[in-house]
Amino acid sequence: MEGLGITVTEHLLIHQKESPAATGRLTRLLQELIFGAKIISREVNKAGLVDIMGLTGEVNVQGERVRKLDDFANHVLIYRMERSGVICAMASEENADIITVPEHMSREDYILIFDPLDGSSNIDANVNIGTIFSIHRKVSERPYITLDDFLRRGSKQVAAGYFIYGPSTMLVYTTGKGVNGFTLDPSVGEFLLSHRNITIPEIGKIYSVNEAYTCYWDERTKKTVNYFKSQKTKGGKPYAARYIGSFVADFHRNLLYGGIFMYPADKKDPAKPRGKLRLLCEVAPMAYIIEQAGGAATDGEQNILDIKPSELHQRVPVFLGSKLDVKKATDIMQGKH
Ligand code: AHM
Ligand code: MG
Predict the structure, then answer these.
(1) Which of 156, 237, 281, 329 is the most exposed place for a label (fewest CB within 10 A)?
(2) Helix, strand, or coil here: 51?
(3) Does residue 50 have a pLDDT over 60?
């Protein structure tokens, strides 16, 4: 029987060898994340069979009701990554503060930021969900770990990626040398290279936004969305509207097919016009991936990767996807059209 192709471990090791300064620690970190994601994937696939769906009864730091699978995924990642020996601290969408790896445990300079189960409001409907991660190197001198180690621009990321739990489980990641996708073959328990060097079309055919919030948008945002509704694609057809409400799933589809994802600032809370998605654990890692795939990401004014975060759970507006579509959206948001 023929071999199955390149496993993610082989791929990581090949790339490690290409960087003479590499110590293998990042490879180790990614391998541990992959193992954590396999455990989450296994539980996600059982959802519905066992009593794991539904709510825990708790409310997280974002004021949202915590689902059992969110809680499970969060605990798995914290437990495994704490023991990986290569990170010194973590931040999760589900935890208010940073999580420091205890001093008595082995630790190195990597910082991990993650959303353990993005799109979790869709769990009970069996819709694709995912885990998003961002990796930085800490900057404060040892042995100190401070909030500043987390409040870094997205352009400083060492690696970023996501796992998507759907009809198949996939890993898509970048270490700044392009984007590759791996699909989990459940029969052998390995992620195999299935999408080599992913690039997003320069201009897309899809716009993705929750249009029900039109009433909360300012005039420029309305104009931006209307542009994609009235514009024809290259083939002369209108753009297609596609919105799942699960960022990983919406992102993944647009990455492969081309298109623009928008979660603009809105005035649901008139005192705080802002986006919904979190800069550090959701938007910056996806912005890094999309740029590496030839696309772009802005908050309507500046490149997402240039934003200097001011708080751990900061939320930002986002326009992300095919380069020319994002440019058009950003131009309209800036009043240039
Ligand atoms: P979550 O991390 O609590 O699941 O929330 C983030 C999700 C994203 O996956 C998705 O893009 C967005 O919320 C959908 O929000 P809305 O329902 O307002 O359109
Ligand atoms: Mg999320």
Answers:
(1) 237
(2) coil
(3) no
